[in-house]
Specification:
DNA polymerase, domain 1; hpI Integrase, Chain A; about 290 residues; about 60% helix; 13 helices; mainly alpha; 3-stranded antiparallel beta sheet; 2 domains
Length: about 290
């Protein structure tokens, strides 16, 4: 991050105003942008950040709070535009490269899914009520573990193939994942996920040998049908109810926990985007709107 530097926010916004005018922005646009920045800072109850670090932190918190309000999407988009213009100004005038980029992607997601993150305790409760008995139970454990431990999406789970796993001495070590754009990423798996996958494979290979085929998905159902998004969500909801978990949780909550852990590790936005298989803007928005 940027070193702490004495910052005069009034002087900074005055220079930002001149920057916008030199870029050909109209007087009303300049007024709106300055007002949006001041309002965003007030959302976090900070009017005088004393450093660039504090400025970015306050703007992110303010935008997160504004995203939860019932604000018209055009008004929210203009606020995003004002902050991105401010960051462009800081890059040009102060040569600050590590500035965030804001988008409304996760504001929409926050409204749709409330960005509910499953906690470690909730995940333990979810897994503890699934016995290691038959194929369906082992499949559910492997599904949940793979999303929680590697952050795969529902669509990526459906497309997983037996040969996507990297192996060493016949033991699973990693997974090669391809997103909707066809971009590949290789993810190392933790020991817990490896164990769940090994238990699933042991039964699946004895009952349904065609999971080793290039033409068949890794996660199958006994009748030979493949998993669908609806069935995956149904599996999660059923296990969620048995465990007595918060009904606002959903299958994506497992992936959000993985993303939150990466953010807490201090991963740069570019690395976060790479690990999740998403765009820079998507990852930046996720960093802002995930519950802290």
């Amino acid at each position: 991050m940027i070193d702490s530097t004495a910052l005069d926010i009034s002087a900074l916004l005055e220079r930002f105003s001149l920057y916008l005018k030199n870029k050909g922005r109209s007087k009303i646009t300049v007024r709106f942008y300055l007002g949006d920045i001041k309002r965003t800072l007030r959302e976090d109850n900070v009017n005088r950040p004393s450093s660039f670090n504090e400025l970015f932190s306050s703007l992110e918190k303010g935008l997160q709070m504004a995203g939860k309000e019932k604000m018209h999407h055009n008004t929210f988009n203009r606020r995003i535009a004002s902050l991105n213009n401010l960051n462009a100004f800081l890059r040009e005038e102060f040569h600050i490269e590590d500035t965030p980029h804001y988008s409304n992607y996760f504001r929409k997601a926050a409204i749709r899914e409330n960005l509910r993150v499953i906690s470690e305790e909730e995940y333990s409760s979810l897994m503890n009520q699934i016995p290691r008995e038959d194929l369906l139970c082992l499949r559910a454990r492997a599904l949940f573990s793979l999303v929680y431990g590697a952050g795969l999406t529902s669509g990526e789970i459906i497309r997983v193939n037996y040969y996507d796993f990297g192996r060493e001495d016949m033991l699973i070590k990693s997974i090669r994942v391809k997103n909707r754009k066809g971009e590949e990423r290789v993810l190392e798996l933790d020991n817990s996920t490896k164990e769940e996958l090994a238990d699933y494979e042991k039964i699946a290979l004895s009952e349904e040998t065609d999971i080793k085929s290039h033409d068949h998905p890794y996660f199958k159902i006994r009748d030979g049908a493949t998993l669908s998004l609806r069935r995956i969500n149904s599996i999660f909801k059923r296990r969620q109810e048995i465990a007595g978990l918060d009904p606002t949780l959903n299958f994506t909550s497992l992936r959000f926990n993985y993303a939150k852990r990466l953010i807490e590790e201090g991963l740069h936005i570019k690395e976060l985007a790479c690990r999740l298989g998403v765009s820079y803007n998507h990852a930046s928005s996720l960093k802002i709107f995930l519950p802290k």
